[in-house]
Write a structure and sequence with these properties.
545 residues, mainly alpha, two-stranded antiparallel ribbon, 69% helix
């Protein structure tokens, strides 16, 4: 059994499967290859510039002050290490599936299933929060135009106030409370994802162009109202205050890996996918840093813990008309995030279905639209129904853990790939930098610089109730020691090692309760794997036949 769990899939088999689609058991050929560098970059920006720049950036600025810009740089560097590793995989394994497929090549089937299950947190469940966020922006926009939906059609059961419950119509005594805008946008976006990548590409490109123009306009106008005294002190709550916003900031970045799920729809995935991911990451980081300086410069950071910080700061300086522009941009930006994630999730399920880990219907390719039709519809249902009834915006931290976990496995997977002296084709190749000396030097440097905080986190003086929250950090320290040892003895490549350690550290800044929930999520996934996927695995059955 253990051999089956860790059996790896060959690159040749993966590429062969990618050329076969299924419609009721019959091959239908490959998907439309229409995406180029500009399209992939636009999709990356569409996924990253969303709710984060319009809402969660306010919470992060409240905790970190003007120094939140440093947090965006730290997060971008962390994502940058991961993006380079994704790019290496995308150039070597140019098929759909993202981290799931990459893990199947390097770690084996069990790890692939675990990462595929974790990615459901990032895509499907995370999108519920995005849909609900979109609903809030849309309702604010309607209100600004003098239009208002009935409160019971723009709320959720678990967040409804007594006033909303009283106003709602009732059936058999049960109040009818629906978030209709959230459900509507999921249906619309699912339709775009269903009818084809060409239509999705055009929609994403248009939305990205519009929101970048608005964001640049906001930055330029905002800098005229900056009061530099608001930037002092630069780090009012210390470095720990900056890191308090890590989950909010990282949640804004998690979408760039969705670009890798479109590998089979790229004209030249080995060349274009890496460029698209890296370009989008750089552009988004610059925009986030500029926005953070505008926000913390226009008003004191202590007033930024609001749901709509961009609109708030312009209201404060008397430019209320800009708030309406921001509301329009927020609606467009959040919808583009939904679109990219609704494209990404079905393609991961499609890859898992090809391997037999999910029912074959999930790999069904529509004969006309060349999209994973059944998987796209199921994704729409899984996102749309909860968004209609529930308020799941609290999944930000949980989604970030799932994404960081995926990043760690991708970085670790690169270390297991056979090193190539020179690429045989014109594709991206991750530069090899010997980490034998650099990794131990960086670890020692950080241990010295942050020795007081390190001693405090590893101290048992506060008792179990205090120390248990440091368990993730304790695991990080163990992992760091192990990776430092292997970097020195095995001369591991620097970039993947730094990617693994930086992602693991960001995970330690997310609350312990989210680790517990994430662990439960993984246990549910393992139950499904051993109940269905293990016995239906094509790789396992091919060996046994």
């Amino acid at each position: 059994m253990s051999n089956s769990l860790f059996r790896k899939k060959s690159l040749a088999a993966i590429i062969k499967d990618s050329k076969e689609g299924f419609t009721e058991g019959h091959e239908t050929g490959s998907m439309h290859k229409v995406l180029k560098v500009k399209d992939l970059t636009a999709m990356g920006i569409a996924a990253v510039i969303g709710a984060g720049i319009f809402s969660t950036i306010g919470e992060a600025s409240f905790h970190g002050g003007p120094a939140v810009s440093i947090l965006f740089i730290i997060t971008a560097v962390t994502c940058g290490f991961s993006a380079l590793c994704y790019a290496e995989f995308a150039s070597r394994v140019p098929v759909s599936g993202s981290a799931y497929t990459y893990s199947y090549v390097t770690f084996g089937e069990l790890a692939a299933w675990v990462i595929g299950w974790a990615l459901i947190l990032e895509y499907a469940i995370g999108n519920i929060a995005v849909a609900i966020s979109w609903s809030g922006y849309f309702n604010n926009l309607l209100h600004g135009l003098g239009l208002d939906l009935p409160v019971w059609l723009a709320s959720n059961y678990d967040s409804a106030t007594p006033e909303i419950i009283a106003a709602a119509p009732k059936i058999a005594g049960l109040p009818i409370i629906l978030n209709l805008p959230a459900f509507f946008v999921v249906v619309l976006v699912t339709y775009l994802a269903y009818v084809g990548i060409q239509e999705s590409k055009r929609s994403a490109n248009l939305m990205v162009a519009l929101k970048i123009l608005v964001i640049l306009f906001v930055i330029v106008v905002g800098f005229f109202y900056v009061n530099t005294s608001n930037w002092h002190p630069f780090m009012p709550n210390g470095f720990s205050g900056v890191l308090n916003g890590v989950s909010a900031v990282f949640f804004a970045y998690i979408g760039f890996d969705a670009v890798s799920t479109t590998a089979e729809e790229c004209a030249n995935p080995q060349r274009d996918l890496p460029k698209g991911m890296i370009y989008s990451l750089i552009i988004c980081t610059v925009l986030y840093i500029l926005i953070s300086f505008v926000l913390t410069g226009m008003v004191p950071f202590t007033s930024l813990n609001v749901a709509d910080p961009l609109a708030f700061v312009f209201d404060k300086v008397g430019l209320t008309w800009i708030s309406y522009i921001i509301s329009v941009s927020a609606v467009i930006a959040t919808m583009s995030v939904l679109l990219v994630f609704q494209i990404g999730q079905p393609r991961i399920w499609m890859s898992m279905s090809r391997d037999g880990l999910l029912p074959k219907k999930f790999s069904k390719i529509h004969p006309r639209f060349k999209t994973p039709s059944f998987a796209t519809i199921i994704t729409g249902i899984i996102v749309g129904i909860p968004a209609l009834f529930l308020n799941l915006t609290i999944v930000t931290d949980l989604t970030s853990i799932g994404t960081l976990f995926a990043f760690i496995l991708v970085c670790g997977g690169v270390l297991l790939l056979p090193r190539e002296e020179k690429a045989t084709t014109k594709r991206f190749q991750l530069p090899y930098i010997n980490g034998r000396i650099i990794v131990p030097a960086i670890v020692i440097l950080f241990a010295v610089l942050f020795r007081s905080g390190l001693a405090e986190k590893l101290s048992f003086s506060g008792g179990w109730e205090v120390w248990k929250h440091n368990i993730p950090f304790f695991l990080f320290v163990i992992a760091t020691i192990i990776m430092t040892y292997f970097s020195f003895t095995k001369k591991l490549s620097l970039i993947p090692v730094l990617g693994m350690l930086s992602c693991f550290y960001l995970m330690t800044e997310i609350g312990l309760k989210n680790w517990v929930v994430f662990s439960i999520w993984l246990l549910i996934g393992l139950t499904i794997y051993f109940g269905y996927s293990y016995y239906n695995s094509k790789l396992k059955n091919a060996v046994n036949s």
